[in-house]
Amino acid sequence: MAISSPPAPAAGRRPGQPAPAAAARWSAPRAAGRIAPYGFVAPFFVLFAAFGLFPLVYTAYVSLHRVELQTSEQMDWLGLQNYTRLFEDHFFWNALGNTFTIGVLSTVPQLLMALGLAHLLNYKLRGRTFFRVAMLMPYATSVAAATLVFAQLFGRDYGLINWLLTSVGLSPVDWQASTWASQLGVSAIVTWRWTGYNALIYLAGMQAIPGELYESAAMDGASRWQQFRHVTIPGLRPTIVFTVVVSTIGATQLFGEPLLYEGNSGGGISHQYQTLGLYMYEQGWTFFHLGRAAAVAWVMFLLIVVLALLNAAIAARRNRTDR
């Protein structure tokens, strides 16, 4: 009985290698599988390029030209003159200083109060869900509505704050004309709006800390304050860095609260609480200098990058020292 031998492979093809047609049928699904993830993320990159990258690059291009709002189609090349004029402007440095002071006055109390509130909500309290929802109410409130209400509270003649001050024998304060008083008023709005938001972020970070650490600390005789210092704070360090970076970015971009506090882009009679956001708005939409406004926008962008890198470097150095 004759035994049939397997067919000889075609010329140029090794034994076991699939035929060209079969290889094509196998390679097509594999190629599609490799391309499919890029297709899924492509809409994000298209939208980012259209509404994020292009405006950023175009703003940098505009900042190198003289562009007026009335004749925005006419561009005269200036190079870096918009930036040099910016750094020679007293009002720019005033806005930069106001941005820093308002940022400190609003960020530091805001994060400290958020940390304390999150620590209280981390315990088993009655109505915890209600309190957590109530924390988000200021954040969900419109910035325009919140600022208008606070502007009435800080009114010079009929404001509730001055009424309380006079009722205890203190002199009323002009919360919109005085430099420090107006900056405290704007900082109070920012603190009220964002404390609850940061408190919920801290609360989520606290709930991710293993409970065994608290049990071990309690068995060693640590009080609740000691547990908070030596267990909660080290466990929340990445979350704290995140909130500091986000709050710093928000303080640098502060715009709505100081704009609506008195209703003008000058930031008060003597620009006492004009921030960089208001200064940019004033250059572009009050004085119609779009080129200078674009230069301010890029200075703000670079400032945010530097502050974010500085915070990251400080956090990394702290982590190395703790190891």
Architecture overview:
Its main location: membrane. By secondary structure, this protein is mostly helical. It has one domain: MetI-like (MetI-like fold, Orthogonal Bundle), CATH 1.10.3720.10. The chain has helices spanning 20-62, 81-87, 90-121, 128-140, 143-153, 160-167, 179-207, 211-219, 224-235, 237-252, 256-262, 276-286, 290-322, and strands spanning 65-66, 76-77. Strands 1-2 form a two-stranded antiparallel ribbon. Helix 3 (90-121) runs parallel beside helix 7 (179-207).
Q: How many DSSP helices?
A: 13
The CATH level-2 architecture is identified as Orthogonal Bundle
Give me the CATH fold name. Answer: MetI-like fold
Largest sheet: 2 strands, antiparallel
**How much of the polypeptide forms β-strand, as a percent range?**
under 5%
* Rg from alpha-carbon coordinates: 29 Å
Run of helices and strands: HEEHHHHHHHHHHHH
Number of domains: 1
CATH class: Mainly Alpha
In the CATH hierarchy, what is the superfamily? MetI-like
* Helix share, percent: over 70%
Tell me, briefly, the overall form.
Answer: globular
Main β-sheet, spatial strand arrangement: 1-2
Q: Report, as a whole number of angstroms, the end-to-end distance.
A: 79 Å
Q: Please identify the structural class as seen in this structure.
A: mainly alpha
Q: pLDDT average, as an integer?
A: 86
Number of strands: 2
Low-confidence stretches: none
Protein name: Sugar ABC transporter permease
InterPro entries: ABC_transporter_permease (IPR051393), MetI-like (IPR000515), MetI-like_sf (IPR035906)
Keywords: Cell membrane, Membrane, Transmembrane, Transmembrane helix, Transport
Domain ABC transmembrane type-1: 96-311
